[in-house]
Design brief:
It is a single chain. With 432 residues, this protein is an alpha+beta fold. It contains 8 helices and 23 strands. The strands form 6 sheets. It has a 6-stranded antiparallel β-sheet with strand order 5-10-7-8-9-6, with no helix packed on it. Strands 15-23-19-16-18-17 form a 6-stranded mixed β-sheet. A hairpin with a 6-residue loop joins β8 and β9. It is elongated, with a radius of gyration of 35 Å.
């Protein structure tokens, strides 16, 4: 072919054929600046490994993987909990005081709540809110109109009680020679239930020629990252499902298939009456203390405090602000607290980096703290079936018998449900 010529001037750059004036096709540089030529003979310089431009801490699966696992034998699974044996007796309506009668016993009839009817019987000794004692002489067990009639001690009166007051039942009162048994007891158990959730398929697909060409001519590790991101999507959303899912059943887009959704941790907390308490960072340690002692299941023990690093650092700063923390020569500003001790009870911080991911959690948990007994959180799966599975399919028209399509597909599926034992013994704070 003919040689292209340009005027030579040793004092000038070799325009228009030097590196500044020639770029590869599709060059951003050539598009942006006039006078830059493009040629198919130049290939762009491309870093072979893709730069992961997202917070890697979002991929932390430590909490999800560390939970206890249990095999169940049905889509629906159940568990029972046995509450404590002592129940306060709730007053249903205001009841006036009964004055004493010298040398005699006086009686007072107190309307009680429906739930209280099951936990008291004639012969039981009761203690009033002000400490006055009495004994139940008789009672009405009709729902909606239940009541107890209380005998006073000889020569003493009985105080007024108001709606929502509680009397304490300390058990049967006995006398010498008294042989009657007024009541017998059986422990109460409470049924809890949930269902498994089948999730997936989280899938990626490559046609054969497409993949082969990419493997031979591709300039980046896109195939590797494609598979990796599919896996990460499955794992991160599974952890989110354990927190955010609500109990239910629905029909899939095919109009036929029925899918179930497990009840997640937040819903099980709410069903147990756990509310969101809004507190400032400075109040957090005190609020955690109240949760610890209000929900203590033993004289000591360990709970976990789940929260974003942002919030954990914020409450640590608030707690250390009034303390002398440094000595001469210190060079690090350290405002972190990793553990709280409350007279035998230990609360360990567990950072939940994923809660900062607005694509999964929005702002639902970004400023929240959860106080939990970690051993009470169980991930259930169907016995004999994998809780998490990876499947790989090769469909080849040259196989015998032949298939209609040629492609390579990978997908992930999950089958699990959450069980939160003693959900009432947890807490949820929102830091404002």
């Amino acid at each position: 072919m003919a040689l292209q010529e340009a005027t030579f001037n040793s004092a000038l750059q070799n325009a228009p054929m030097n590196t500044y004036d020639m770029r590869s096709v599709g060059s951003t540089y050539a598009t942006q600046y006039a006078g830059v030529n493009t040629t198919l003979l130049l290939a762009p310089d491309i870093r072979p490994d893709l730069v992961l431009s997202f917070p890697k801490q979002f991929t932390d699966m430590a909490f999800f993987m560390s939970l206890k696992k249990r095999a169940v034998r049905s889509l629906e699974y159940n568990w029972f909990e046995m509450p404590w044996i002592h129940v306060p007796i709730g007053v249903r309506t205001n009841t006036p005081a009964v004055s004493l009668s010298a040398g005699a016993v006086v009686q007072q009839t107190i309307p009680i709540t429906n739930t209280a009817i099951r936990y008291i019987r004639p012969g039981d000794k009761v203690i009033y809110p002000d400490g006055t004692n009495g004994v139940v002489a008789s009672m009405v067990t009709t729902s909606g109109s239940g009541s107890i009639t209380v005998n006073s001690w000889i020569g003493q009166g009985l105080p007024a009680v108001t709606t929502a007051d509680t009397l304490r039942n300390v058990g049967p009162l006995k006398a010498d020679g008294f042989s009657t048994i007024y009541s017998t007891t059986k422990p109460e158990v409470i049924l809890y239930t949930n269902i498994l959730e089948n999730s997936g398929a989280y899938s990626t697909r490559w046609d054969f020629m497409q993949r082969k060409e990419w493997e031979m001519q591709g300039t980046t590790d896109y195939i590797k990252y494609d598979l990796e991101q599919c896996y990460l999507r499955a794992m991160t959303t599974w952890q989110a499902r354990l927190m955010l899912s609500t109990y239910g059943k629905t029909t899939l887009p095919d109009g036929v298939s029925q899918a179930t959704s497990t009840s997640g941790l937040l819903e099980q907390q709410a069903n147990a009456g756990v509310i969101i308490q809004t507190v400032s960072a400075a109040q957090a340690a005190d609020a955690i203390r109240e949760i610890v002692f209000d929900t203590a299941l033993a004289s000591g023990g360990t709970k976990v405090l789940l929260g974003t690093r942002r919030v954990l650092n914020l409450i640590g700063q608030a707690q250390k602000a009034d303390k002398v923390r440094y000595t001469p020569g210190d060079s690090t500003w350290d405002m972190d607290i990793y553990q709280y001790n409350y007279h035998g009870h230990t609360v360990i911080e567990v950072p939940m980096d994923q809660w900062e991911d607005v694509g999964l959690y929005g702002d639902q948990l970004r400023n929240d703290l959860l106080v939990l007994n970690k051993e009470d959180i169980i991930v259930n799966f169907f016995e004999g079936l994998p809780m998490m599975s990876r499947k790989h399919t090769l469909l080849n028209s040259n196989a015998e018998p032949g298939n209609l399509f040629n492609y390579d597909q990978v997908w992930y599926e999950g089958l699990f449900g959450l069980e939160l034992n003693r959900a009432w013994a947890t807490g949820r704070l929102r830091i404002q």
